[in-house]
Design brief:
Layout lengths: L1 E5 L4 H12 L3 E6 L7 H7 L9 E5 L5 H10 L4 E4 L6 H6 L1 H21 L4 E7 L23 H20 L3 E6 L2 E2 L8 H11 L2 E5 L5 E2 L2 E2 H14 L3 E6 L5 E2 H12 L4 E5 L14 H7 L7 H14 L6
Parallel strand pairs: 1-2, 1-4, 2-3, 4-5, 5-6, 6-11, 7-10, 8-13
Antiparallel strand pairs: 9-12
Helix pairs in contact: 1-8, 3-5, 5-6, 7-9, 7-11, 9-11
């Protein structure tokens, strides 16, 4: 099969591209290498793929309609996996216009051209952030998601609605995947596990927002990629699935686990609650289990040592 993976040089995208290449698929990776974090990180993410015959990198932007026309004209894609987005809850509060433009307009571009070209499967990377401060836990796909607490979350909700519209009007098969706090090797440096590991290693203060009792459903990268693969196989009609570990970990507990694995105590800088942060994220994955055969199995106790081992190996990340 022939795949287009947008944002394919990022954390999740590079792992997905690797998995697809291993399964003998042909992959076109479209990434604009923006400056959200150092470009060398994304370059390194796909370094092992560049020489692969079944892999092609295109440096470009999903906002560039003419480029998309060229990309889709050159290759007859079977599947589009749309991971590209302006990431980060907190930065979206400072620059909502950028998030609206990239995430919503860019997604509409891809939905439109995919519908025009008769793409048979379109996978959209949504986010657990669409649930906001949902009072009911665990979060189910049947819950209302009308109360986002950040522009980032609002863009993801808007894209889900647009995806349904394209399915309804243009018969585009779309599956939306709500990812729950993905971590593991190559995790973005602004994410808590990566950031905290670096600061503990360097003996610097960890910024701890709130009292540390917030809880997250941390999902290891291989479990996410397994879920994406299964969603691709079953993509038909319009579907939304949670992909999480379906376990919650308190922030204070996460820090203690990092201290144990790194072998150094954390220096804590306590700060007020951060605007836009949810108190808890917790995935009900029963629908994904039932319909996709999704079965996450990497616990936080297994995943953190794997991440720290990678972080230590990639020594320049500590600079």
């Amino acid at each position: 099969m022939r795949f287009l993976v947008t944002g394919g040089a990022g954390f999740i995208g590079s792992h997905l591209c690797e998995r697809l290449i291993q399964k003998d698929h042909f992959v076109v990776c479209l990434d604009n290498f923006n400056n959200y974090y150092p470009l060398k990180i994304k370059r390194r993410n796909i370094q092992s793929l560049i020489s692969q015959k079944r892999f092609r990198l295109i440096e470009g932007d999903i906002l560039d309609w003419k480029l998309l026309e060229k990309v889709y004209h050159k290759d007859q894609f079977d599947v589009v996996v749309h991971l590209a987005a302006r990431a980060g809850v907190r930065p979206s509060i400072q620059n909502p216009q950028l998030y609206q433009k990239v995430n919503i307009e860019g997604t509409v571009n891809l939905l439109e051209i995919s519908a025009q070209r008769g793409i048979s499967k379109f996978i959209f990377a949504s986010s657990s952030s669409v649930y906001g401060n949902n009072a009911k836990v665990p979060f189910s796909e049947e819950d209302r998601v009308d109360f986002p607490i950040s522009p980032y979350a609002a863009t993801k909700k808007a894209c889900e609605l647009l995806a349904y519209t394209y399915h309804s009007l243009r018969s585009l098969p779309v599956t939306c995947l709500r990812f729950f706090t993905v971590y593991g090797p190559r995790q973005r440096p602004d994410m808590a596990i990566h950031k905290f590991t670096k600061l503990i290693t360097q003996g610097e203060e960890i910024p701890l927002f709130g009292d540390g009792t917030s809880r997250r459903d941390y999902t290891y990268i291989t479990d996410i990629i397994d879920g994406v693969e299964k969603a691709i196989e079953k993509c038909d009609g319009f579907r939304i699935y949670n992909l999480g570990e379906s376990q919650t970990v308190e922030l204070n507990v996460l820090i203690r686990l990092l201290e144990e694995v790194v072998g150094k105590p954390a220096k804590i800088k306590r700060l007020p609650d951060q605007q836009g942060d949810a108190a808890v994220t917790y995935a009900d994955v029963s629908k994904a289990r039932r319909e996709l055969g999704y079965s996450p199995h990497v616990s936080i106790q297994e995943g953190i040592p794997k991440f720290v081992e990678w972080f230590i190996q990639e020594s320049d990340l500590k600079d």
